[in-house]
């Protein structure tokens, strides 16, 4: 029975997201994650391509810089802690007390797993110009409480009231080719970044309510995926930075102009089926059926496929986002204290889940080492979710992020503990990791 849930958990993770449209709690630059994202005024060289193009025009930056092997991921789970997710994904077993504890923590509307993976593959800065390629995605998956019950305890023939409920998901993957330019005018620098976006895929998946044979005491379920794998788009970011001595201030408007268009002529679906006799081997069953490939989604397709595709393109774009930040460089020690405010001005699924946040950070260079710490907090208000923007009273949006980073020569590493908000009086716990190389000349 664990294999069924293991398949669902494994499906959740193998996705990635565009560096230009990240959530407030995850940056495409590892050094930025070390200060909880409060990096708008600090990004230099190739980092400015993804964060603030105006900084390319500032004096004192590198003549040439190169970013390689950058990787960042954030992951959070509601109703399941990270150790339980890991154990379920690896096919582990739980005793009766542990199973009861897990089910007791899951809200009535189900568990949720969501996050992002950011992969700025390469960034190159030469003078006031920067170029880069990125890849990755955003994902949001719900698993109904009874679905977890089936995974933990198996099928109970005496029950005919299993309700799969809110068991569905959404993911989007795409690529980004970006170019940026910055120019200084006295103490002020202005910059612009253009993104050519190549949507890779967007998919919905859904498991439907089971059908019961009361005579034979059997159960049958169907699942569908529906999506498309092509499209095109662009986005433009503008930024400004003012250097006022020991104080630097910046403002950036991401996606001030742009559009992401998915290919609606290329819609396709997959159909899966399993029952009480093979639900314990659902991983193998679904894998075998997945290999059968897709079928075009048309008006004559199965109703379940059409229903799964409903809302596929809803808010499937990069939201316009305002970021304002500053940093203070303390004399003598050179300690950098930074702060930043982020606010999504539109409801775009591809922009992540925190609509607004504030963050503060501190970094101190010591010889070849640059340790850093940071704290970010999601502001009260709505949060962006799978299918809608949830009101504050329901979402209980009080996410927090506590980060630590280390720059060791060209290597930057950041880790964080994430409390990604609350829902139904349940914390959404998670983590974030980020690593990358920066070479400057």
Order of helices and strands: HHHEHHEEHEEEEEEEHEHEEEEEEHEEE
CATH topological fold name: Porin
CATH-defined architecture: Beta Barrel
Low-confidence segments, ≥5 residues, pLDDT <50? 1-24, 386-396
Shape descriptor reads globular
Beta-strand percent range: over 45%
- What's the number of extended β-strand segments? 20
Helix and strand composition category: alpha+beta
User: Helical element count?
Assistant: 9
Quick check: average pLDDT?
Answer: 85
CATH class category name: Mainly Beta
Distance between the termini: 56 Å
CA radius of gyration: 23 Å
The major β-sheet equals: 14 strands, antiparallel, barrel
Report strand order across the widest sheet.
1-2-3-4-5-8-9-12-13-14-15-18-19-20
What fraction, in percent, of the residue positions are helical? 10-25%
Total number of domains: 1
